[in-house]
Task: inverse folding
């Protein structure tokens, strides 16, 4: 989650005044590791494809559409809406479709601070084995899980096409308190 | 590795860890001493997968993704004592469990290992297998008697719903007879359990089915664990039957573990009701505090705090709260200093 947020966040990089047509962001840390590819379109729209994992036991992927809202010259607001798949195993098995809404605010300078807020709604699918007089059968049941994640971080360009970022992640995953995480990320942007 | 994971709990906010003081439970302007009579130990890989999931879901993310190291650490002698310290509790009682259908097995020998490792902090309840009672009863009773020889094994733990035996089955009278003979109280799980593999039908969960045995063994102390709480529906379940038995028989006691947890009773109303009804019936001197931990790091402290808050809401005096948290336990188990 965090990573995605990062990813997304990073994707929405500080050089955003003239967005790169394509950028790739990788991030690693505790507990998340992830990759995101972003493609920009006209009129401040972009699409992000993200994949991330927590400790190799929770996997999330998603496709997200973003819109940038330049507020003032150095402030930028981004909103995004996406959907994807979650898979978690073995100890607390989870799988299902997840919908993500994301808002990010960032300030453009040499060190660009940013804040991201994610609301994720997972429709968890679980196979239920039912034993009855007419025999055994299986049935799929759904359980909703909400994750709310906040990120704070800072980005710094290290060349015309490379940028580093550092972020911390807080919140809840599937309504369970998440121990704060930290991630280091690198973005490459096509120039 | 485990120590490192535990260090992360320093980052967990206070509500999750409870707010008991390092030594005692703050009750108004008094500090109460506390003993937790319901604790578990065991090895993670002996717990059936469905129960592993149930437990892992209570760990914070991402420790829930790899719960084994944390669980094993929490269930060790040092882990249990660390959790007692964190909760401000003096001592605890660790249960042996033979429930291969549901929560798994913690042998008498494993519990004795803990007692020997922390003899100043831990007591134990011994248990026995009942799954081949026709042929094994004598053997099992002998093993139980031997386990109860251990100076810190102070009682017997049974869980009819987990062990698939009825409360009104006279086959198991020999266990109650042994308990009476050795003056070791019997703790019994009551009420429907949330675990797969347990039986929820009334003869296995409603302690009213135990009445004939309670009557037949007046020398035996029966402690009704969870006070009949219905963990499946998160409702009071057989509370009134428990209280009625307490009113009728002086050898009946209660233990309110788990029913007031964040998962079972998020806003504390059910726990408050249980405590208030006990007070209304004049049975506070029958209630012995237990949590059903350690479950996850911080649970013991959280449960002690929730108990304290529910006691306040039920208008317990500090003396009444102290009786539940400690002195009833010492009296019932004959451990008066
Ligand atoms: Zn228990």
Result:
């Amino acid at each position: 989650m965090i990573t995605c947020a990062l990813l997304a966040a990073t994707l929405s990089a500080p050089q955003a005044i003239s967005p790169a047509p394509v950028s790739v962001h990788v991030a690693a840390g505790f507990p998340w590791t992830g990759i995101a590819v972003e493609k920009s379109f006209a009129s401040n729209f972009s699409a992000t494809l993200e994949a991330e994992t927590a400790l190799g036991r929770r996997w999330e992927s998603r496709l997200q559409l973003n819109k940038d809202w330049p507020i003032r010259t150095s402030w930028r607001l981004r909103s995004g809406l996406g959907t994807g798949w979650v898979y978690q195993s073995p100890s607390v098995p989870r799988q299902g479709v997840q919908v993500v809404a994301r808002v990010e605010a960032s300030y453009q300078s040499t060190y660009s601070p940013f804040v991201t807020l994610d609301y994720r709604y997972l429709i968890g699918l679980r196979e239920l084995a039912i034993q009855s007089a007419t025999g055994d059968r299986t049935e799929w049941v759904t359980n909703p899980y909400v994750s709310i994640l906040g990120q704070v971080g800072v980005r710094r360009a290290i060349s015309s096409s490379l940028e580093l970022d550092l972020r911390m992640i807080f919140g809840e995953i599937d309504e369970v308190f998440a121990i704060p995480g930290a991630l280091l990320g690198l973005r490459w942007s096509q120039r | 590795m485990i120590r490192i994971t535990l260090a992360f709990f320093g980052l967990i906010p206070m509500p999750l860890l409870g707010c008991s003081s390092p030594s005692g439970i703050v009750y108004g302007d008094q500090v109460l001493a506390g003993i937790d009579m319901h604790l578990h130990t065991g090895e993670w890989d002996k717990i059936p997968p469905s129960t592993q999931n149930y437990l892992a879901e209570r760990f914070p993310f991402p420790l829930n993704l790899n719960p084994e190291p944390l669980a094993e650490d929490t269930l060790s002698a040092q882990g249990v004592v660390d959790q007692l310290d964190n909760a401000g509790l003096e001592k605890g009682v660790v249960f042996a469990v033979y429930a291969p259908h549901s929560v798994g097995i913690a042998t008498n020998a494993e519990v004795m290992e803990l007692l020997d490792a922390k003899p100043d902090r831990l007591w134990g309840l011994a248990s026995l297998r009942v799954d081949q009672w026709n042929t094994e009863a004598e053997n099992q009773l002998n093993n139980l008697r031997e386990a109860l020889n251990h100076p810190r094994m102070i009682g017997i733990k049974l869980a009819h719903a987990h062990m698939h035996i009825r409360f009104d089955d006279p086959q198991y009278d020999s266990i109650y007879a042994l308990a009476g003979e050795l003056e070791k109280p019997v703790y019994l799980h009551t009420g429907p359990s949330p675990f797969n593999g347990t039986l929820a039908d009334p003869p296995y969960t409603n302690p009213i089915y135990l009445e004939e045995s309670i009557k037949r063994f007046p020398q035996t102390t029966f402690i009704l664990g969870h006070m009949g709480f219905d963990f499946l529906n998160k409702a009071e379940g057989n509370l009134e039957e428990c209280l009625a038995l307490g009113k009728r028989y002086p050898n009946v006691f209660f233990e309110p573990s788990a029913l007031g947890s964040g998962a079972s009773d998020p806003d504390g109303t059910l726990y408050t009701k249980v405590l208030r009804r006990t007070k209304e019936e004049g049975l506070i001197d029958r209630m012995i505090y237990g949590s059903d931990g350690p479950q996850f790091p911080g649970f013991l402290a959280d449960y002690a705090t929730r108990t304290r808050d529910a006691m306040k809401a039920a208008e317990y005096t500090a003396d009444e709260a102290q009786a539940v948290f400690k002195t009833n336990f010492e009296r019932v188990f004959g451990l008066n200093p």
Remarks:
- Residues B 38, 40, 292 surround zinc ion (CB under 6 Å).
- Chain B is about 40% helix and 15% strand.
